[in-house]
Amino acid sequence: MTREELAHLVDHTLLKPEATASDVEALVRQGVELGVYSVCVSPSLLPIDAHGLKVAVVCGFPSGAHKSEVKAAEAARAVADGADEVDMVINLGLAKAGDWPGVQADIEAVRAAAPRPTVLKVIIESAALTDEEIVLACHASEAAGADFVKTSTGFHPAGGASTHAVSLMRDTVGDRLEVKASGGIRTLETALAMVEMGATRLGLSGTAAILAELG
Hints:
The protein has a single domain, classed as Alpha-Beta Barrel (TIM Barrel). The protein is 42% helix and 17% strand. The chain is built from 9 helices and 8 strands. α3 (68-80) packs parallel to α5, α5 packs parallel to α6 and α6 (131-143) packs across α7. The protein is an alpha/beta fold. The N and C termini lie close together (12 Å).
């Protein structure tokens, strides 16, 4: 994989709670220089001038424990503020309780508030789920109309992306949905391993250092 090919898989991410508008401007400048696909930021920092890059925004972040109507309102506002893509967090409490219709309904509320062509990525927080729960979370995401399933917020103490989770997610959704790996991807070796396992997008905050390894 060339440097340019890998860069075009990257959501160049800045989700630190203390991030400022100036920090986002710097993120966009660096993203343009690196040739990434998009920048991913917090909703309060929109609207932004992304200089031709796609704009992704998180929703229900990082816990996912918001009321569905709150997530829906947040997603709708993000789209109105210029977001091209919405990365929402599932309701993990419902998932752990086995309430998969509830998980699906939560995702459906956001999908309805941010209809296509807005891209909807569903963060399942894979490190906090069993393999069976990962599969069921992927099924709920697909049934609710998601475009992507995504591993992690990067904020959960259970951890971030793993090649095992990415492989399982890819096997579950086939070629019907995209798979985004995010959370704890800090080296080129790890990034390429995620792609090898089926990730079609990468959430990276240390993008420059990883791409530098490719020259």
